[in-house]
Amino acid sequence: MQITGSSAIVVGGTGGLGEATVRRLHAAGARVVAADVNDEKGKALEAELGIRYVRTDATDEDSVNAALAEAEAAGPLRIVVDVHGGPATGGRLVGKDGSPLPLDGFRTTIDYYLTSVFNVLRLGAAALAHQEPLEEGGRGVIVTTASIAAYEGQIGQLPYAAAKGGVASMTLVAARDLSPLGIRVTTIAPGTINTPAYGKAGDQLEAYWGPQVPFPKRMGRSEEYAALVQGLCENDYLNGEVVRLDGALRFPPK
């Protein structure tokens, strides 16, 4: 699939991974809509790159549909990337005081990291389904974001691991569901990525995680995530797959 001339939406487009993806797709010739809730960063990207920023709540159907409409207005929509974040809670299933992990915190994490991904996935797929088919009947691609915590969740990560495991599990089923429409679905499962959001704490995280990565011995970079997004978009035979981006890191128990 050719990125040049296509419209793309990046939900979570002002975060570290999202901004890098917006920049990468823009440089590749896409007409990009950054959909997020950080107005300051979004408007700065809009002014710098000439892309479109739309304030978007990934948990809300009307909000996501409005952002998708902006992307469709910019050109034939072919690319939907979801890399949004949100609040997450954690803790051991049973604490040292014998109390169980609160249910409300689990529900909140699932809502932001799984249910809202499903929301973007279903609405994005419906928007792609309206597009004219390209060669071999393809209409576009959806890229969601899981985590290697889906496979090796650490102590205290149960809600987040469950949510990201759900994202990974949806990938193949969604690809099968959407195959008659010519819509591909792929997922990236990042390991430890050092994004600008960490600020000065990024150096401490690098010192901790970098030596644990088999190779290269450093944390990942946002630009590497964005490069993988581009590759997933351009390679029409990548479908139904969760791709780990982790330097062969496997999370230890804690």
Automatic annotation (TrEMBL):
The keyword Chaperone does not apply. Keywords: Oxidoreductase. The keyword Oxidoreductase applies. Pfam families: adh_short_C2. Belongs to the short-chain dehydrogenases/reductases (SDR) family. This is SDR family oxidoreductase.
